[in-house]
Amino acid sequence: METQAPTAQFTVIPNRRPATDEERWIAMEDPVFGKVFTDHMARATWREEDGWADRRIVPLAPIPMHPGAAVLHYAQQAFEGLKAYRWEDGSIRLFRPEANAARLASSCRRMALPEVPEEDFLAAVEALVETDQNWVAGAEGASLYLRPLVIATEASLLVQPAAEVDFIVTASPVGDYLSNGDVGVSIWVSRGYHRANAGGTGEAKTAGNYAASMLPQKEAKDHGCGQVLFLDAREDTYVEELGGMNLVAVRADGSILTPRLSGTILPGVTRDSILTLLRDEGRTVEERDIALTELVEGIESGDIAELFAVGTAAVVTPIARLVSDDLDVSLPERSEEDGPSVASAMRSLLTDIQYGRAEDRHGWTREVVSAPEG
Known about the structure:
The protein is of the alpha+beta class and 374 residues long. The chain has helices at residues 21-29, 70-74, 97-110, 118-131, 207-222, 269-280, 292-301, 342-354; strands at 11-12, 40-47, 51-59, 77-79, 82-86, 92-95, 143-152, 164-174, 185-189, 227-231, 239-242, 246-251, 256-258, 285-287, 304-311, 315-324, 327-330, 365-369.
């Protein structure tokens, strides 16, 4: 698919002390997700009187910030997450960056922040990937995770939208988040704690939503579970999403059921991609409210054959068990005769597209660095 180059320009200020080849190799050998960062970051600043300016790629460094910065007091911020992949021919591609740009703009609107124009978003991530392309490994499951961030930096304790805002993009080399795609995780169903309420910030990708999930996530860990599933805040009845992933159920007849985007659920780019691929296969995909009781009864009766979660980091995470104070129900185990699960098949198909091993029929990949000549 032909794509237009962004018109915004980010000036590159090289890091005078970048990581050596050996330091980079050690850092990339087995990176903990989000703990290792590349040599540079993208930055731009918005001021009420001037708009967006000072677009640049600069050496990675701490951000000097006044202790009165609005983001520190009122959490006025939004962020994104996407990945760059090195293909077998040596080229580097982004996966659906336009969708991430649109979602960041939507999150910024909800958080009363200035929207980052798509051309600035694309120019920033592309310039950063091109500058730090040596950090994009070609190993199986490896990618470069990009974290765009918009924060209110004005020094003001007034409860009002900030007049100065920074746009920052960092990059982290990451490995395969889920080493075995067929091993399911146990999920703690939170009771009493909620991620978001109607009219709140649930469909925005913003820090407060994740902060609200941390105590129930600790509760999940205390019960031996790897993630937490939230119910709706109004009735404490309908399943919504995990702490950072969307939920998908597979019925015994092969049809798909997933919670509808109600304004309290983050519209995941991976969710949309997986649902599109499932529809491509001819599967019926139903998006609606799903009561926890319906889900549990479906698992117990065999009507629900699979559960899995989808998100940028792990792509697809199979769910083996739902646990809470008043329930403990497991999904059926699969044998070799059953063949690959829908979760495993979707993970393989999507990653094959992301890494250039399968046809990109929807035009989702965007080239940043061309394949070397010869």
